Every structure is written in structure tokens, then in C-alpha cells.
Amino acid sequence: MGGKKERTEGLGRALIKQQNRRAIEAKEKGRAIHLQNRKILESYTEINEIDAIVDKSDEASLLLSGSAASDAGSSDLLISADDAGDMTAEERRQAQKEEEALYASNLKVPRRPPWNSNMSVEELDTNEKQAFLEWRRKLARLEENDKLVLTPYEKNLDIWRQLWRVLERSDLIVMVVDARDPFFYRCPDLEEYALEIDEHKRTLLLVNKADLLPFNIRKKWAEYFHQHDILYIFWSAKAASAALEGKTLIQEPESQDSDLPGLDTRIYGRDELLTRLQAEAESVVAATERPSSSSSTTSEKRQVTVGFVGYPNVGKSSTINALVGAKRTGVTSTPGKTKHFQTLIISDELVLCDCPGLVFPSFSSSRHEMVACGVLPIDRMTQHREAVQVVANRVARRELERIYNIRLPNPKPYEPQNRPPTSYELLRAYCASRGHVASSGLPDETRAARQMLKDYIDGKLPHFELPPGMDSSESEGEDSVSGSDEEGEPEPSSGSLPDRRELEDLEEFDSGMKSGKVVKKRENKKAGSHKQHKKPQRKKDRSWRVGNDGGDGMPAVRVFQKPAVNFAAISASERG
């Protein structure tokens, strides 16, 4: 009996050990894949396509068998090969707009393939890589079109996975945009993707840095959002953080009224924003739940989740820190600080979720514009003049001279007098005023460009974009009035001072030509300080010269005449 019992116990232990061994092997296998994917997230927007293909060759090898079939069946993109060499700049721009409108539907956010809890880790990873490579392949075909200029976009699958998780677990999606150009940072396809996940999900446009906008421009943006049924909130993370420290940075005008009823133009505070976000998220949850289940759980409130998404360096982490009331996420001026999504519990009813910043593909901008707007890192730029030219085109000449206390050269007579300054002129003037000189002895334009771009992003250089369809002349008139009130002592424009000096010199020259003293007057000004220290010169004695009484200015000539000889008197004396 004892031996049989021992054999039974040994068999049971063997079965338990075998089961535990299989569980450990499965766990180690999943952990290996997890550790493989847990490498430091790095943005792939700054590398070229060849490096991206080399880095992701292992992923492409998994899909080598199905790539030929997908390439053969995906001929829906017709690329025009027309020669555009004879087209003018305006015709080329119009053709580019037509091409962008034609292929705008192809700029989509990568979708996560369908999945369930019964799928293994390897199967889920393979499906996600395959769907992502197919998305990359479609965008690569768009880049082959000469009429389209596709901006740099995020090419790292791991960062897009962070976005998928935030969208799936969030009840309300908050898209953070910069108030100075909201449509540059807005991604309409992301709103459509949220509706594909759940038709009741809503996307709210959080217009950050609204304190950098004049009130009249903020009002026009509010009217545009209201007319197009866009859910929006004006917000300033910097002002909210200062309010936590007892400082006040925003002074709202009291006498400004709106023509549209229900137009919200105020900048929300921290408590107001939290209340509004929770109310919007609860409305989404109430619409998602069925009436039968909602009636049974009316006494219990489910915890709602609000996810923050958007471009890098638009203020997502700063907004999270201001709402939490403490520094929970890293904040820096360099885009891409947040690497993984973070979940922060505000209360028992509200949870905030911060997503890493992503660069969405678009046709609307260039690489230099993305560097100037802070989407791409400034410290990694290689062409600084093109990025500074974006700043020079958007900021008025007089504002650049006033803020940096520099004098920009005037346009040439054959150039348009209202043209913006070139990047060369702006950088050289800035380097001359600050004394930035490189080791080669030339002006350090790279250092000056980085400082100016950071000032442009931080709001030191004022600029803003108008809503679509609005005439810029309306805002220019209002800004000119407000700008004259703020400056107090307006400085002369860049062209007024040199013109005044030139007129004074011309008047002095004309008057001097009439009196014949212009040269003598300028010599006296230059030599007046040290003329009295010169030794007195001795005058040469020219008294031996004979004056000319004729006064004709010719030298006098002395005539020596011999006395006449009286030959008759001599002959008479000889005779006597």
C-alpha cells in the first residue's frame, strides 16, 4: 500500500511539474517577444527610407511570400507622369492642390487589425506587422508621384501601438492642437478612426496656447468651430500651471460680446476643464450603455477615461501636469519626450491617459515648416536657412526689428518693397547684434537659427493663422490698432531712418553747392577737435615779389632798361 501510494504521488508530482514547465516555457516565450518589443522607442521620422528598410528587414522577411500578391492587387493608385517643366509656379501650385484633393483619402492613420483574447502573442504580432507594412507600402506609392509632397511621418510601429491602446481604452479622445495654427496639428482621419472603434466615441479639440492669440482672432476661430460643429475648448497649460503657483498670466476682456449665441471664447481654467472633460466622457458612456443596463446601474458611476493625443511638442504632457497638479510626466521643448502611454488617476470617477506624440502623414506642409513648428527636433536640423525663412515669412518685419532690436536691410529698388526679409539678411543682422561668430570667423548662423526657432515656438515672436475663408486684411487692421497701443513708444520703421538721413545729406549738399562751403564745412567738422593742437606754420617771406597792379592774376615781370646814350654830347666834348 505504501509503495502504490508513493507511485501515485510521484505521478501527480510529475504531471504538475510538466504542466508548470509548459507554463514557464510559454511565459518565457511571450516574455522574449515582449522584451524584444520593449526596446527604447525612437522616432523614425528623421531617417531616410533606406535606413528604415534595413532596420525593418526582419519584419519584411515575414511577409515576403505575400508581398507579390499584394503588389499585384493594389493598382488603385494611378501616378501621373506628365512633364511639368513648362508649367508656371501658379499652375504647378494649382495642380498640386488638385492632386492632394484627389489622394487625400489615402492619408489614413494605420488601423490595428482585428484581434481577440484567444489569439497568441506571435499571431497578434505578425498581424500587426503585416497591416503596418501594407500601410507603409501605400504611402510609398504616394511619394512616387512628383506632384505630391508627402511630409515626414512616424515609421515606428511600436509608437503607433501606443496610440491604438489609448484609443481603445479611452471614452473621450482629446486632440491637443496649437492655437496659432489649429488645422496644422489636427488629424481628421484620427477622429474617423475613433468612430470606427466605437460609434459613440467623441473627439474634443483642446486648443492649447490660446493666450498667445489676440481676442479677435480667438473669436473668429470660435465662430468657425461653432459653424462646423467641432467640439472645442480654449486652454493654456502655461497659464494653468502659473495659476497653481498663485500667478496670473491671462486677463480676459470683459466688454467683448459675440453675435452667435452659445459661443465659448473664454480660456478655461484647471477646475473648469476637469469638470468639462468628465461631463463629456460621462455623456459618451451613457450613450454607449444600453437603456436596460443603465437603469440598473444608475446608482453606480463607472470610472471614465480621457485620452490625450496629438503631435509632438503641442503641450500634452504640460496639460497633464497642470490638470494633475504635480509633475507626473516629463516636459521638454524637444519633441518626443514621452515614450509610452501613461495612465493617471485624478479621482475615483476620472482617469487621464497620456499618449506619445505622433507625426501624422499629410500634404499640407514641408519638412522646414515642421521644424519651425517644433514637430521635428530643432537640434537635428541640417538646413537652418530654410527653417528660418518660414519664420521670416510669417512674422512681420517691424516685429522682428522691435523684438530683437536689430536693423534689417531695406529691399532693393527693383524688388517689391513689402517683401519679407530673407533668412540670410535676418541671420546676419541677428549675429551682428549678438556677436555670434563661429570658429571659422564667419557669423554663427546655426546658433542664431536655433535661438530664433525656439523663440518662434515659445511665442516670443507673435504669429497666428486665420480660419479658412477669412480675409487677412480684416485682422491686419485690428492688429495695427492694438499693436500701436501696446508699444507705447513706437520705433521708426526700417526704411524711414535711412531715407531721412539721405534727404538731410541731399539738402546739405544742395545748399553747400550754392554757397561753395560744403567741402569746407565737412572738413571743419572732422578736424575741429584736433586742429588747435597743430603747430603754427611759418609764412614764407615773399616780399621780394612784385605785385601786379593790373589785378589779372598773372605774375609780374620786372623790366630793366639801360639809359640812352647821348652820342651828340659825347662827340661835341671830344671836339672841344
TrEMBL record:
Chain spans, region Disordered: 460-557
Keywords (A to Z) from UniProt: Cytoplasm, GTP-binding, Hydrolase, Nucleotide-binding
Family matches, as Pfam families: MMR_HSR1
The protein's name in its UniProt record: CP-type G domain-containing protein
Compositional bias segments (type: Acidic residues): 473-490
Location in or out of the cell: Cytoplasm
Basic residues bias: start-end ranges: 517-542
Domain of life, source organism: Eukaryota
InterPro entries: G_CP_dom, GNL1-like, GTP-bd, GTP-bd_ortho_bundle_sf, P-loop_NTPase
Gene3D superfamilies: 1.10.1580.10, P-loop containing nucleotide triphosphate hydrolases (3.40.50.300)
GO MF: GTP binding; GTPase activity
CDD domains given in the database record: HSR1_MMR1
Domain CP-type G residue range list: 160-361
UniProt keyword Ribonucleoprotein, yes or no: no
A Gene Ontology term for the protein's cellular component: cytosol
